[in-house]
Amino acid sequence: MSILSPRIAPGINVAMARVAARFYIFTILLVACTFFLPHPVVIRTLPLLVLGLLAVIMIIILYLVPWDRFEPRVFTVFHLLSGSTLLSILVAVSGGLNSSYDVLFFLIILFSYFYNLAEMLGIAAVVTVFSLVPYLYSPPEPHHYAMSAVLSLFFFLGTYLLYGVTRFVLKRNRILEDLNRELQELYSITSALFKDMKKDAVIETLAEGLKDHLPTTYCLVLLLDDKLNMTVRIACPVRSLNWEPPVGLLFAPDQLSIVRQTIENRQPRVLRLESDAIDEELRRVLTPPTRSLIIVPIRIAAENVGVIVFAEERSWERNPFTNERIQLAVAMSRQVAIGINMWWGFERLESMRNEIKIAHDKVIKAERLATLGEVTRAVEHEINNPLNVIVNWAEVYREDATVDPEIRKKFQVMFDMAMRIKQVIRKLAETKDVKSVEFVEGQNMTDIE
Fold first, then answer.
1. Residue 77: inside a domain, yes or no?
2. Residue 245 host element (H or E)
3. Which ranges in 70-137 belong to alpha helices (H)?
4. Residue 435: CB partners within 8 Å, gap ≥ 6?
5. What does the pLDDT look like over 335-367, one tens digit per residue?
6. How far apart, in whole angstroms, are the C-alpha atoms of residue 429 and residue 102?
7. Does 147 score more than 60 pLDDT?
8. Number of structural domains found in the chain
9. What DSSP character marks residue 272?
């Protein structure tokens, strides 16, 4: 069933069927003219009505059948057989060559394929006027039938020529199918970028995708920075080359004038190195055997972000930059722009995530400090009252001469430790942010015996 499988883009067979329907519209017009034209040929009304009905049925079939499900040759054979049948009936009914309808019908077959609606109506008017021209009609003779058969063969030949045009359209359509398949694969690469948004992963995925779908020998991706410097970020050969990829090479704003002109013009530019002059800086990043190249701007919205250079080492005669290859290069540049835009978006998200994390840490620390402040105030209030009593009595007894010196020494230690506690409480109350506090520098805790 491969002969019935669709091999062209959706809609082409349907469009051909719409054009072929004009053939049967002309059939109805000619049948109507036959009824109203005065001539000596005997008009057989019933066959003409059947012919008109068949034309209406064919128009309905052409509009209702889903022709895109079949190969173009199926539609061509169907139209060939049905059209030749109606032609034979019309020639037989209208009197052969004496009626001149067979010649007009053959011309209408050709014109029906190539004219729009306005021109079709114009042809109908011409056919009507031509039919009104006085003709000497006479009963058909045997040689008239032979000549009608010859003209029918011309109809087959004309249809075959039209099918040749269809084959040419199919060839162009296969090229478009290949281009569409390449674009679908590029879209899959873009979708894969969403799965791993790390910077290095994006660059690696883009490089691998370009390598698999290159229309040339190799390509380079150069991106602009905030200072308009241009850096080589990706270098992708389609096969192993004696070439050191210049990834990371930086060019100042006054270098690569041809590349920067292409960015300003926002249009692809094809260069043949054997006849076109290029910058020495650009030659530095190309391989010596490079014969031709195309520079395609990379744009994100209205912003120019860089270029993608597709270089070809094969000769121009062997592998020129055709319109299809240029379209593929432009499509690839758009996909690269999508990938770069996601890369930049990921970097912005990473930066925002880091800022949010820092702000979150600050909020947590602020909450901890607020809690610490409340605890400190409570501790200060609860400890200072009994601590003041201890300090006061310790100070009294350490200075009382009637008290035993050993006991006074103990009260001195109690006084010092109580003052140390007060100092710690005071520093806790003064803590406002995150910083290390050494409570009593150079002092050790003293055990009270």
1. yes
2. none
3. 72-94, 101-114, 117-132
4. none
5. 777 777 777 777 777 778 788 888 777 877 777
6. 112
7. no
8. 3
9. E
Can you tell me which residue has the tokens 């694969």? 185
Q: Tell me the C-alpha distance between 188 and 166, whole Å.
A: 32
Interior/surface letters 407-430, b for 16+ CB within 10 angstroms, e for the rest: ebebbeebbebbeebbeebeebee
Helix (H, G, I), strand (E, B) or coil at 193: helix
Q: Is residue 191 part of a domain?
A: no
Task: Report which of residues 2 and 146 the model is more confident about.
Answer: 146
Q: Are residues 31 and 177 in the same domain?
A: yes
Q: How far apart are CA 274 and CA 277, in angstroms?
A: 8
**% of the chain residues with pLDDT over 70:** 54
Question: Domain check: are 395 and 278 in the same one?
Answer: no
Measured distance between the N- and C-terminal CA atoms of the chain, rounded to whole angstroms? 107
Q: Cα(75)–Cα(70) distance, rounded to whole angstroms?
A: 7
With respect to residue 109, please indicate whether it lies within any of the assigned structural domains.
yes
Read off the amino acid at residue 65.
V
Average pLDDT over the chain reads: 69
Task: Give the helix ranges, DSSP H, for 220-271.
Answer: 257-265
Give every CB contact of residue 274 below 8 A, 6+ residues apart in sequence. 291, 316
Domain assignment of residue 121, yes or no:
yes
**Residue range of the domain that includes 228:** 199-350
Mean pLDDT of 71-81: 70
* Same-domain pairing of 366 and 328: no
241-293 residue pLDDT tens: 667 777 788 888 888 888 888 888 888 888 888 888 888 888 888 888 888 88
- What is the C-alpha to C-alpha distance for residues 89 and 60, in angstroms, rounded to an integer? 20
Beta carbons of 279 and 256 less than 8 angstroms apart? yes
Q: Is the pLDDT of residue 302 over 70?
A: yes
Domain closes at, from 350, 370, 395: 350
Structure tokens, 238: 């389609």
Q: Which residues pair with 347 in a beta bridge?
A: none
Q: Work out the angle at residue 400's Cα, subtended by the Cα atoms of residues 394 and 403, and round it to the nearest 5 degrees.
A: 95
How far apart are the C-alpha atoms of 7 and 174, rounded to whole Å? 8
Domain stops at, among 350, 367, 385: 350
The one-letter amino acid code at 321 reads F
3-state secondary structure of 207: helix
Neighbour count for residue 94 (Cβ, 10 Å)? 28
Q: Which residues contact 387 (CB under 8 A, 6 or more apart)?
A: 418, 421, 422, 425
Residues 226 and 314 in one domain: yes
pLDDT at 208: 62
User: Residue 437, Cβ neighbours under 10 Å: how many?
Assistant: 9
pTM of the full predicted structure?
Answer: 0.42
